[in-house]
Amino acid sequence: MKPLLHAVPQPAVELPYYVPAGNECVLFELAWRKRLPLLLKGPTGCGKTRFVAYMASRLGLPLHTVSCHDDLTAADLTGRYLLKGGDTVWADGPLTRAVREGGICYLDEVVEARKDVTVVLHPLTDDRRILPLDRTGEELQAPDSFMLVVSYNPGYQTLLKSLKPSTRQRFVAIEFDFLPIDQEIAVVASESGLSAERVRPLLLLARRLRALKGQDLEEGVSTRLLVYCASLIAAGVSAEEAVTSTMIEPLTDDLDVKQALLEVARATLA
After folding, report:
1. Coil, strand, or helix at residue 143?
2. Whole-angstrom distance, CA of residue 44 vs CA of residue 157
């Protein structure tokens, strides 16, 4: 019997930088080898998209990424007929291309898409692994190399925007959160070029601001914003100006809240 896991040949290209927080890389690879769909859930900017890009490169698979939004329809994923040179031709959408060619189709923030999108995904998330194309009359069978990955931020869920339990239970799920502080410092320092010593107070500030989520803030400071902040400081921008433009202004428009956050920032970075 072949082992479930074995050494994966590393592609010639450099892998995207990613620091594992736990066993997520093994779980992802097992899900791909067992042809299981995967659901990633966690706060905005905690590394879900980077993780998918890292695993696609590590496994040597094409990656088709779709950023979901309110107007995204099933046709945007599967394809549509277009006029081209006087003829009507069928154009595959990103999901159809991934099913035809193999690789990973990643739907980022899937709850933002319209409800008809999840209906299209259902036949791909059970043992059939098929994609019916009603407009062309085709029924595509997903190859072994195809994998469906979706993500969402549970903190943004509402009664109108949430995954039904019947949909969630079609996926293997991995929960993401921000890395432990020393690991997050290493990530921000590597991505921005700012030394770990200068990144540490930014992380301490971010932790304080994240603690305000659900009170004065809808969302905390993401790792992505920390990288932006550290990058500006590394380029010569003052710490206060960089913090204001990347860790305060993007979080709120309320003047009183911004002033309070600035005071927290000054106290933390003093």
Report:
1. coil
2. 12
Q: Which tokens belong to 62?
A: 């094409």
Enumerate residues 6+ apart whose C-beta is below 8 A from 217: 209, 251, 252, 257
Closest CA to 43 of 123, 149, 135, 153: 153
**pLDDT band at 216; cut points 50, 70, 90:** confident
DSSP class of residue 213 equals B
Give the Cα separation of 104 and 124 in Å (integer): 12
The helix (run of H) or strand (run of E) holding residue 81 is strand 79-84
Q: Are 105 and 148 in contact (CB under 8 A)?
A: yes
Nearest to 21, CA basis, from 205, 186, 206, 190: 186
Distance CA 90, CA 88 (A): 7
Q: Is 130 helix (H, G, I), strand (E, B) or coil?
A: strand
The Cα 105–Cα 167 span in angstroms is: 17
* Closest listed residue to residue 247, CA positions, set 267, 270, 214, 223: 223
Checking if the pLDDT of 3 tops 50, the result is no
Alpha carbons 26 and 174: distance in angstroms, whole number: 11
Helix, coil or strand: residue 29: helix
pLDDT interval class at 157 (50, 70, 90): low
With a pLDDT cut of 90, the percent of the chain lying above it is: 70
User: In one letter, which amino acid is 31?
Assistant: A
Backbone angles phi, psi at 5, to 5 degrees: -120, 140
